[in-house]
Amino acid sequence: MLPKELDEIFEEYTEDDYNLYITKIDYSTDDFIFDFCLEVQDINDKGEINQTWSVVAKGHRKNKLSFDFEPFIKIETEHPLLWEFHDTQCELYYSGQCEDIPKLFYDLYNVHREIFGNSNDLHIYLGDKNRDAKKFDYTNGLVAKGSKTLLLKYADCLKQNQLDYTIIGERPPKYWNGQEFIVESNNLKILFFGKGYVIAQDFAFVLQDKNSR
Question: Tell me: domain 83-171, CATH 2.20.25, correct?
Answer without folding.
Answer: no
